[in-house]
Amino acid sequence: MIKQLSAYIGEYKKDTILTPTFVIMEVIMEVLIPYAMAYLIDFGIEAGNLSVIVKLGACLVAAALISLLFGALSGYYAASASAGYAKNLRKGLYYKVQEYSFYNIDKYSTASLITRLTTDVTNVQMAFMMIIRIAVRCPVMLVFALVMAFSISAKLALIFLLILPVLAGGLFLIIHNAHPIFESVFRTYDKLNNVVQENLRGIRVVKSFVREDYEKEKFCSISQKIYERFSKAEKILAFNSPLMQLCVYAAILLTSWFGAVHIVSGDLTTGQLVSLISYAMQVLMSLMMLSLVFVMITISRASAERISEVLNEVPDIRDSDEPLFTVANGDIDFENVGFSYAKDPNKLCLSNINLHIRSGQTIGIIGGTGSSKSTLVQLIPRFYDVTQGVLKVGGVDVKKYDLHALRQQVAMVLQKNILFSGTIKDNLRWGDATASDERMKEVCEMAQADGFISEFAEGYDYEIEQGGNNVSGGQRQRLCIARALLKKPKILILDDSTSAVDTKTEALIRQAFQQSLAGVTKIIIAQRVSSIMDADQIIVLDHGEIDAIGNHQDLLANNAIYQEVYYSQMKGDDNHAA
User: Fold this and answer.
1) Contact 338/353 with Cβ under 8 angstroms?
2) What is the DSSP secondary structure assignment for residue 200, as one 8-state letter?
3) Fewer CB within 10 Å, N- or C-terminus of the chain?
4) For the CA atoms of the chain, what is the radius of gyration?
């Protein structure tokens, strides 16, 4: 994991190396200051030698200024390195998620992925900055200060060595008990983000059903769990401060006590005792700072594992070793296809699917809720791979195509119509980035979208809000259809994408398709029989299996499911007319 995450330092290696370099130089200057101070006290102040006081005083000031300069430089490069590292890590995570198939994305919730890209990356960034700066400074300061202390008095310096195991053992117990709690906290953070995201997306539904109090209670419940677990972890980490103070004050008291005895016996000077106390503070403050690093590492370790989990996820849909880049035509063949979201042959949501669709045909798909209509068409552009059997497009197994090339020839308008913030032109050009204004107008006329676009003062430059919230559901559907048509696909899939459009407009869209998309294979999933009555073939799905295939007249005469849907809808139309 460490090796994997370290690779994202990238172009910031120079800053990463310069940071500890300047830290070490800063430490050297800080360690020399108490040593020079001992000479200042013994040979300057106590001896009353003004010349020594001036010279050593000037040296101390110079050493302090140089130490300050090195400290500032180390801070500057540490900030640059850590911010750059976080940038690369976020980029790596985002790019990795783009490679995921629907199966991989389903494995993680959207909220969890967002938490990993934000909170977890920030935690790792803070830990990285501490590692290249404080985690270098503390051991170096510890070693140098101990060496200087032993050079003054080996007996008194042993006090530091006796206290170190006590401190190290205490820190180990604190970290060992806190880490599992932080792992649990970040999993709960995922749930909190999911609640917030779900609430904001469905805020209109929440308000229409007057469920604000319920949503508040749900949010507060998860927030309370985070508070309780964080509090528990912080209570454990709180032992760090008293443990450090105990060790620091014990070292100072013992050094002062035994140091005074050595001064009386003449084995130690006053200046040397002052230096030893300074080195004691440096040693123990280094340990205190090191404990803070360990605390941050404890927190970030859980984050690092979560980030590494995303980076290690292997996309289950990939290009073949020698992919094909040309889709010959819009032929589609399902040969004994079965599919399971869990990749378990015993839990199939589609089974025994045998279909042969010729290029240019219009295919209607109808069935009850949960009959796997959407699942069936999502196999065509390889959003998921079949669990059993073979799926061919243009006479070739879809697994042999380059993914980009296959999906470029399959335009799909999903059930959930998504528009992005930007102008109408920006959204349309998802279908073709180089499309001319004339071409965009042409496809919008086919999708019956040009009429309402023309009513906007800005026309095609009208700004769409995030999610397309400033246009109606029907307008959103028509814009998504136009966007799909702009791809000039060989296969067009409409997954219940005219449900918010009135029947007259829907009829105009179908008419435009017949006139302009004669060579394109069109698959239309619909709840309304009127949407697919004119299709060449209609597929009736029931519980993930094909119940019947035929045209409107055949199914109306022979299929019970189709008859039930048709007559129930026609009865509704008659009542409405009455």
Assistant:
1) yes
2) H
3) C
4) 35
Q: Which residues contact 502 (CB under 8 A, 6 or more apart)?
A: 474
Q: What is the dihedral of CA 564, 566, 571, 574, to 10 degrees?
A: -170
Q: CB count, 10 Å around CB of 523?
A: 26
Distance CA 125, CA 5 (A): 11
| Mean pLDDT value of segment 206-211 | 76
| CB distance 334 to 370 below 8 Å | no
What three-state secondary structure class fits 464? strand
DSSP class of residue 462 equals P
In sequence order, what are the beta bridge partners of 492?
411, 522
Answer whether residue 577 shows pLDDT above 50: no
Each residue of 95-120: pLDDT tens digit? 998 888 878 887 887 778 888 888 88
- Strands 537-542, 545-550: pairing kind: antiparallel
For residue 364, what are the β-bridge partners?
524, 538
> Tokens 């750059």 correspond to what residue?
84
How many other CB atoms are there within 10 angstroms of residue 453's CB atom?
24
List the single range of 23-32, 139-148, 344-353, 458-467 with lowest mean pLDDT. Answer: 139-148
Q: What is the mean pLDDT of the chain?
A: 85
Q: Which residues contact 341 (CB under 8 A, 6 or more apart)?
A: 103, 106, 349, 384
- Residue count of the chain: 578
Which DSSP category does 501 fall into? S
Specify the pLDDT at position 573.
54
Tokens for 271, please give them. 């200046």
Convert 361-376 to b/e letters by CB count within 10 Å (16 or more is b).
Answer: bbbbbbbeeebbbebb
Name the residue with tokens 């959003």. 383
Position 578 scores a pLDDT of 32
Yes or no: say if 367 and 361 are a contact pair by the CB < 8 Å rule: no
Chain-centroid distance, C-alpha 361: 41
Q: Residues 327-342: pLDDT tens digits?
A: 999 999 999 999 998 8
Per-residue model confidence (pLDDT) at position 528: 85
Average pLDDT, integer, range 451-462: 91
Three-state SS at 90: helix
The CA distances from residue 145 to 72, 157, 161, 281, in Å, are: 21, 10, 12, 9
Cross-strand pairs, 333 = 356, 392
Please tell me the predicted confidence (pLDDT) of residue 425.
92
Whether residue 115 contacts residue 35, with contact meaning beta carbons closer than 8 Å, is answered with no
β pairing state of 545-550 and 388-393: unpaired
Ordered alpha helix ranges (H), 431-559:
437-446, 450-455, 473-485, 503-516, 552-558
Average pLDDT over residues 180-184: 75
Which two three-digit tokens encode residue 42?
A: 């013994």
CA distance 32 to 501: 80
CA-to-CA distance for 329 and 308, rounded, in angstroms? 41
**Cβ atoms of 411 and 484 closer than 8 Å:** yes
Residue that the structure tokens 């490679």 belong to = 99
- Please check the confidence at residue 15 and state whether its pLDDT lies above 90: yes
Q: What is the DSSP string of 226-269?
A: HHHHHHHHHHHHTTHHHHHHHHHHHHHHHHHHHHHHHHHTTSS-
Which two tokens mark 537? 């073939």
Question: How far, in Å, CA of 525 to CA of 338, rounded?
Answer: 19
